[in-house]
Amino acid sequence: EALAQSGLAAQRTVHIVSIDEDDGAAAWEIAQKGAALLKGHGIGTQVHNLVTVKPIADAIVDACTSYHAALLVMGAYATSRWKELLWGSITRKILERSTIPLFMQH
C-alpha cells in the first residue's frame, strides 16, 4: 500500500517475488495477493514465486540482481525478537548486503 501511495511505482512494472523454503504454492499465493493490491492502484506487476534452500536474504539479493531491480521494497522486522536472536534478522541482512536503494515498511 505504501509503495502504491508513494508514486515510486508509477509507469513501471513491479516484480513481486515471494520466497519459501519448501512450498511454492504458498509463495505463489502470497505474491498474487501483492499483485492484486498493486493492480488495484493501476500498477503493472510480474509475479515470481521462488522455492530455495538458500538463506532468504541471499535469495532476495539474487532476485534483485536477476530482475535488474532499481529498488527493493519489503516489509521490515516482522519476525519476533526470539526468532531474530536465534536465526538473525532477514531485514538486517538485507540492510547489510543490498546494493540498491531500499523502501521498507515496518
Description:
By secondary structure, the protein is an alpha/beta fold. The chain has helices spanning 2-6, 24-39, 56-66, 81-87, 90-97, and strands at 13-20, 44-51, 72-75, 102-105. The strands form 2 sheets. The chain has a two-stranded parallel sheet with strand order 1-2. Helix 2 links the parallel strand 1 and strand 2 (44-51). Helix 3 (56-66) crosses helix 5 (90-97). The mean pLDDT is 83.
Please summarize what this structure is.
With 106 residues, this protein is an alpha/beta fold.
Secondary structure topology:
Blueprint: H1 2-6, E1 13-20, H2 24-39, E2 44-51, H3 56-66, E3 72-75, H4 81-87, H5 90-97, E4 102-105
Parallel strand pairs: 1-2, 3-4
Helix pairs in contact: 3-5
Shape: globular
The main sheet comes to: 2 strands, parallel
How are the strands of the largest sheet arranged? 1-2
Mean pLDDT: 83
What's the end-to-end separation, in Å? 12 Å
Give the number of helices: 5
Low-confidence stretches: none
Using only CA atoms, what is the Rg? 14 Å
Strand runs, count: 4
| Structural category | alpha/beta
Helix fraction bin: 40-55%
SSE string, helix = H, strand = E? HEHEHEHHE
- The amount of beta strand, in percent, is 15-25%
Could you list some keywords that capture this structure?
two-stranded parallel ribbon, alpha/beta, globular, about 110 residues, 4 strands, 5 helices
